[in-house]
Design goal:
Two copies of one chain form a homodimer. Chain A is an alpha/beta fold and about 350 residues long. Chain A is about 40% helix and about 25% strand. The first copy, chain A, is built from 13 helices and 13 strands. In chain A, the strands form two sheets. Chain A has a seven-stranded mixed sheet with strand order 4-3-2-1-5-6-7, sandwiched between helices. A six-stranded mixed sheet of chain A has the order 9-11-10-8-12-13. In chain A, strand 6, helix 5 and strand 7 form a beta-alpha-beta unit. In chain A, helix 1 crosses helix 13, helix 4 packs parallel to helix 5 and helix 5 packs parallel to helix 11.
């Protein structure tokens, strides 16, 4: 059975969780997956670079302490040499999970481009490269006979893009509505329970749901990128980030929240898109007062959900975690499974 | 691209809906699916048998009026000759959607057995053959290099079995809870709104949600078969129907329903199974008072849902229709897509 060589670009929470999974269960080929995973390179801003085409023991890499670096290992260095590792290592798959600027998509976008141009499959959790350069990267992947996968950019490991491409094939998806940001959903839930927005945000920060600067979560820009990615993938659109109209919850009136609760429903920050009869797509992010029996009204706390509207099945809704290091690492694994599917379908059994 | 020959066993609502779909969009290979579908045989208790290995025009078959039969067509007969058609037609795939006795699994079980023994793939919507003879039929299919698929036996076309095998691969599913019967869920919803059970059942019958004899829906036996099928597929069990403990809602006290509503929650008929540390599986059907924030508490009306408990993602919940002729026909299409996947993965591209 196949063992894939992988390069981990960025060794923060998500790629560390993937390394743990590989160590615990996926280094050898399993019957469940049909393949094994071997780490041949790791780069990280703090830790430097470690490349070893014979394989890196995940346990050793994970044990490097804060403040340390990879320099002591054969093939290791304190320098961060992403470009060389991505272009020259023996990796079949580049797993990109750096911190990335959502406006420029960098440095993730360059990592993705280098990998695809070098004929390596890419799995990324970063929204920026997908939202900003999706068409270019899909074309690059096609041109080089490899896959560009990004399940983790939407609902972490909860299947959203892959639900559609794997388990809803043959359906015509006409639109979707989603709760695509756990922080804002948690804040709205606490406001529904009577807290002020300021107190709800503070609680979210204390619980680790919200960043010190919650602007991207509350203002809707995080959701907007996910709406754009979903609309392009699921509805066949070619939207740019600017095509999504965005209204966040930062100015939401507590009275409006109470009013929705009193009516038996809830205000939710809904990211949605619909394909019109002429093929155009309307995409938006805005707070919506949902009736109590709406499929998304009862999605609580940090849980995320998407209701897909389809021609043959009506509405199919999936909900699950939308964040978390292990949950997002599972998205990377799901991407690798899809890469393996594609390889096997192309006849490359081994 | 591939065109599959299919035999439709039973030409009631579901297989008629599939014939309509084939006529409207799937007779020629499409880019979305990569294959086309050609009906080469139809059998039906009322209409008799029509076999034509050159292909049957779905529109012509669908136009046969009530009280008529297939005798006038070349290869047609007023006799119902399931065994010959299943064994001798040129069908690659036998689509089994007859009315079937849930206690014996017949006549569907014989149809499935004949087809698999003849080296034909099977897609069925019937729970009986899966629940009663699942291990035998899976083995038979393996022995003959074909697939035995039955997505429609659980949530009609809403992906449940295939969600797990396609989009949750690599996860360890530790258990599930589901609302697996739309009739009983509708009745419970109406009781929550203040109706008596008798009035709620009458309304369900008027809306076509409930049979004249609602025993299987309210008593839990329909849910029990689905729990058994899911437990065996998703948790790797080998349960028989008798291994599922069953308590229906037929004797449920209206006061208990009101009490759950007053507490902000709901009573739901929950089909559930859990794998224990020793590998044994507890499986049950019973009314459960759910808190308002439970993932299944807000599933309304005839909608079905399953919450899968997993090791890496926590709980992932899917909801959608659990019945309907077009919805169930989509389950057959999803089965055929899985059959095609397996063929292509085995290297049989064409």
């Amino acid at each position: 059975m196949q063992t894939y060589n992988i390069a981990l670009i960025g060794f923060g929470g998500v790629n560390r969780a993937l390394a743990e999974l590989i160590q615990e269960r996926f280094s050898e080929p399993t019957e469940a997956l049909g393949f094994g995973l071997r780490i041949v390179a790791i780069t990280d801003l703090q830790l430097g670079t470690w490349q070893n085409d014979d394989g890196i023991d995940p346990a050793v890499a994970l044990a490097v302490e804060r403040g340390g670096n990879f320099a002591a290992f054969p093939g290791g260095s304190a320098d961060v040499d992403n470009e060389r590792v991505i272009k020259e290592s023996s990796a079949d798959i580049v797993v990109e999970a750096t911190f990335t600027n959502p406006t420029t998509g960098e440095p993730a976008a360059s990592h993705v481009r280098w990998a695809l141009e070098a004929g390596k499959h890419v799995s990324t959790t970063n929204k920026g490269p997908v939202a900003l350069f999706g068409p270019e990267f899909r074309q690059l992947a096609d041109d080089h006979g490899v896959r560009f996968e990004y399940e983790g950019s939407v609902l972490s490991g909860t299947p959203s893009l892959k639900l559609v491409t794997q388990s809803l094939r043959g359906l015509n998806i006409t639109g979707f509505e989603g709760i695509l940001n756990g922080t804002s959903n948690f804040v709205l839930g606490q406001m529904a329970a009577g807290l002020s927005m300021a107190d709800a945000v503070r609680e979210a920060q204390e619980l680790g749901y919200a960043e010190a600067d919650p602007t991207a979560d509350l203002g809707g820009s995080d959701v907007a990128l996910k709406v754009q990615i979903l609309a392009n993938d699921v509805l066949g659109g070619s939207l740019t980030p600017a095509d999504v109209s965005v209204q966040g919850i930062q100015d939401l009136d507590a009275a409006a929240v109470s009013e929705a609760v009193a009516a038996g429903g809830a205000i939710k920050l809904i990211g949605a898109a619909t394909r019109n009869a002429d093929g155009s797509i309307d995409a938006s992010v805005r707070p919506v007062a949902l009736a109590g029996d709406h499929a998304l009204a009862s999605i609580q706390g940090a849980t995320n959900a998407i209701a897909f509207h389809t021609d043959l099945l009506g509405t199919v809704t999936i909900s699950g975690p939308g964040a978390g290091r292990i949950e997002t690492a599972y998205a990377l694994l799901a991407d690798i499974i899809a890469i393996d599917d594609a390889r096997r379908l192309a006849g490359g059994t081994s």
